[in-house]
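Structure first, sequence second, as always.
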């Protein structure tokens, strides 16, 4: 009985073992951008590569991705520490926004999350995205309000916003002072 030598090509080995791929975008049920994943060679060749969702991973590229992940982790730790400092500053901030008002302390117009974000920038030179300002509805009356601000990730702060009457020329004027969070 003679045995025939089987021809095993590199492609056959890859098809059985799978191919390593570095994801360029989030792929549902597979992974997130930057992940190194094992996928079938056909899936890589026919789906991921043509759609520019992944690149075939070489040893050098995998090592580079690992280094970038480590650098990102270090940067996130620093960013979280900075975010906590910013949150501490914002927690102690009281913003006074001047707005025109009419009868029964109703405003002509309203104070929106964009106005609060701009006021924080004007007063403290801290850039806050308006979408990170937790204001359910625009402020439409004079008074004192607590406004939540997401600084970064899970780090949140609360800013006290006082809307006070202002003359026509003073509209949009912003003042800020520092107070202990217990003071208000």
């Amino acid at each position: 009985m003679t045995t025939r030598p089987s021809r095993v090509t590199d492609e056959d080995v890859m098809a059985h073992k799978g191919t390593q791929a570095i994801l360029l975008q989030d792929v549902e049920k597979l992974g997130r951008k930057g992940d190194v994943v094992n996928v079938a060679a056909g899936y890589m060749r026919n789906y991921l590569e043509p759609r520019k969702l992944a690149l075939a991973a070489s040893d050098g590229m995998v090592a580079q991705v690992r280094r970038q992940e480590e650098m990102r982790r270090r940067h996130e730790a620093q960013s979280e520490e900075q975010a906590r400092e910013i949150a501490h500053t914002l927690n102690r901030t009281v913003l006074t926004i001047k707005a025109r008002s009419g009868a029964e302390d109703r405003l002509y117009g309203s104070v929106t999350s964009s106005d609060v974000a701009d006021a924080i920038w004007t007063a403290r030179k801290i850039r806050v995205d308006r979408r990170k300002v937790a204001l359910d509805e625009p402020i439409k009356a004079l008074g004192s309000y607590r406004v939540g601000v997401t600084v970064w990730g899970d780090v949140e702060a609360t800013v006290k916003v006082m809307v006070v009457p202002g003359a026509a020329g003073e509209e949009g004027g912003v003042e800020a002072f520092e107070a202990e969070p217990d003071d208000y």
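Margin note: DSSP finds four helices and ten strands in the chain.
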